Amino acid sequence: QLQLVESGGGLVQPGGSLRLSCAASGFPLRYYNIGWFRQAPGKEREWVSCISSPEDITNYADSVKGRFTISRDNAKNTVYLQMNSLKPEDTAVYSCAADARAWSGCDYGMHYWGKGTLVTVSS
Q1: For residues 72 and 29, is the Cβ–Cβ distance under 8 A?
Q2: Left, alpha or beta for 115 (phi > 0: left; psi -120 to 50: alpha)?
Q3: What is the CA radius of gyration of the chain?
Q4: Which residue has the higher pLDDT, 70 or 109?
Q5: Beta bridge pairs of residue 120
Q6: How far apart are CA 28 and CA 40, in angstroms?
Q7: Which of 35, 37, 101, 114 is most buried per CB count within 10 Å?
Q8: How far apart are CA 13 and CA 58, in angstroms?
């Protein structure tokens, strides 16, 4: 069974850091484009960052550029989202998604989705 599981969310103060993990089971993430998306309460889902396969091309939303970094660890079959200098407006449920189709940037129509992990940035 193909599955994505996110972890690493929690409560952090403004200016703090978190590292989210997206672990896959049932398929090798190295062959998939991976995206991180988030949805804040009362708002629509928005894309945060994506990484392509196999070139590892990365895209970042303007709101997180310079603060967030997406990366892969193929040995652990996991993709990470390192989040630094967190702001209250980063509060959301963060989900990862995977797709094996040709790279076209961050795609809301990715095939496989995790259930998400909650990130709360508050003092």
Answers
A1: yes
A2: alpha
A3: 13
A4: 70
A5: 11
A6: 29
A7: 35
A8: 27
The amino acid present at 83, given as its one-letter code, is: M
pLDDT at residue 97 is higher than 80 = yes
Burial label for 83, CB within 10 Å (0-12, 13-18, 19+), is buried
* pLDDT value of residue 82: 98
Percent of the chain with pLDDT over 70: 100
Token representation of residue 58: 């990365």
- CB-side neighbour CA atoms (13 Å) of 64: 25
DSSP assignment of the chain: --EEEEE--EEE-TT--EEEEEEEESS-GGGSEEEEEEE-TTS--EEEEEE-TTT--EEE-TTTTTTEEEEEEGGGTEEEEEE-S--GGG-EEEEEEEE-SPP-SS-TT-SEE---EEEEE--
Confidence of residue 107 (pLDDT cuts 50, 70, 90): confident
What the block records as the tokens of 74 is 């193929």
